[in-house]
Specification:
A hairpin with a 2-residue loop joins strand 10 and strand 11. The chain has 10 helices and 15 strands. The longest helix has 18 residues. It has 3 domains: 70 residues; 50 residues, no CATH class; 191 residues, 3-Layer(aba) Sandwich (Rossmann fold), CATH 3.40.50.410. The protein is flat and about 90 Å long. By secondary structure, the chain is an alpha/beta fold. The C terminus is likely disordered. The strands form 4 sheets. Strands 8-7-6-9-12-13-14-15 form an 8-stranded mixed β-sheet, sandwiched between helices.
Length: 371
């Protein structure tokens, strides 16, 4: 057999993206910045096309691109807009979550596809371990260690002439104890997420979409609930993640943790966790029906209430993992206090390199960069 090698030709070998795929990449990126507003994203595309000739390079026109989006089920007419406006579909929402997952956690590789979390305990699991034990009634026959079982039988009977099997001969493999996880995903929608001209909400929204898609696709036995928090905290659905945007809110981190903890109380999963995406600055809490707020610095009265809630989560076995999207050292110091109080974990990310988290694990007292 002979092989002939030649220079790699992207067009010939089919690796070059089509004109539609190139425009779709840009459209999805713009949707992440416009909080799922299709009209605004398309308006930006028209302007970019006028300036840079995007459709000319892609061999199409904007009108044809929009029609193809409708044909493939990414766009639909907005029934509430009499002027012929458009909105993205559930298929487009899913595509945005998948893109966020690939962009942010592209280094992750899907394992066996079952989506179980390993614990340090041996027990009724699915993956065989090298360790063995005596057979017990009800054990799965597939876990049988044939070699050790036959060896026990031969030792007991003394050879082939009197060979037989007894219940005491049987040996089975231990297995990993796999378990499911109940996750509450919190996302900060306070005004500080866009303060001083710094866009923190877009990477926060992308992270929330990536985490939700990761949990739903790779851990199908897990439960996922989403909590948004500002002046107060409220539940949102996964399909609404692309549209989440900041409001004229303070940051009631305590209310967010309380709502997440209440949700996890209703879940029957033994293992429970909170993922919190925030810029790290709690600025209010509600006490006796009234809001106490202070947007300047870190108010210890507010901070201590949040830390108290973190301790309550710890006592109930709920681990808090914080995704910190800010560079202010004082805000990062608060997250470290929160992480220590809960015995949780924290990721610190810069806005321009969201995939390059700094991971701090208080329990194991370690710090590393995750890319």
């Amino acid at each position: 057999m002979q092989f002939r090698y030649s220079e790699w030709d992207p067009a010939r070998h089919g690796s070059q993206k089509s004109g539609f795929e190139q425009l779709m990449d840009l459209f999805e990126q713009l949707l992440q910045f416009t909080a799922g507003d299709a009209e605004e994203a398309l308006d930006w595309m028209y302007k970019l096309d006028d300036k840079y000739g995007l459709t000319e390079d892609a061999g199409t026109t904007m009108d044809e691109f929009i029609e193809e989006l409708k044909k493939q089920g990414y766009l639909k007419d907005d029934p509430q807009d009499g002027a012929g406006g458009m909105q993205i579909t559930a298929k487009a929402e899913r595509a945005l979550r998948q893109r966020a997952l690939q962009d942010i956690f592209g280094q992750l590789r899907k394992g066996r596809g079952r989506g179980d979390h390993k614990t340090p305990f041996a027990g009724a699991g699915d993956e065989r371990l090298p360790e063995t034990r005596d057979w017990r009634f009800g054990d799965d026959p597939h876990l049988l260690n044939v070699t050790d079982t036959l060896s026990n039988s031969f030792r007991r009977t003394g050879g082939l002439n009197n060979w037989n099997l007894s219940e005491d001969d049987f040996v089975v493999h231990e297995t990993d104890h796999n378990t499911s996880m109940a996750t509450a995903l919190m996302i900060d929608l306070s005004h500080s997420m866009v303060l001083y001209g710094e866009d923190r909400i877009t990477p926060a929204r992308r992270t929330a979409m990536a985490l939700s898609e990761l949990i739903m696709t790779q851990y199908p036995h897990d439960s996922l609930d989403i909590v948004a928090f500002g002046n107060d905290a409220w539940e949102v659905e996964v399909k609404d993640l692309p549209y989440l945007n900041v409001g004229p809110y303070y940051t009631n981190t305590r209310a967010g943790l309380q709502r997440a903890r209440d949700i996890l109380h209703r879940r029957r999963n033994k293992n429970k966790q909170i993922f919190m995406i925030t810029d790290g600055k709690p600025s209010c809490h509600i006490e006796n029906g009234r809001m106490y707020r202070n947007a300047f610095g870190l108010d210890r009265k507010i901070v201590n209430k949040v830390l108290d809630e973190a301790v309550m989560c710890r006592r109930e076995g709920i681990t808090i993992t914080t995704f910190m999207i800010a560079r202010d050292p004082s805000l990062q110091d608060f997250v470290r206090e929160l992480t220590e109080a809960n015995h949780g974990r924290a990721y610190y990310a810069s806005l321009d390199n969201l995939g390059g988290f700094i991971f701090e694990d208080y329990v194991r007292n370690r710090r590393k960069r995750v890319r």
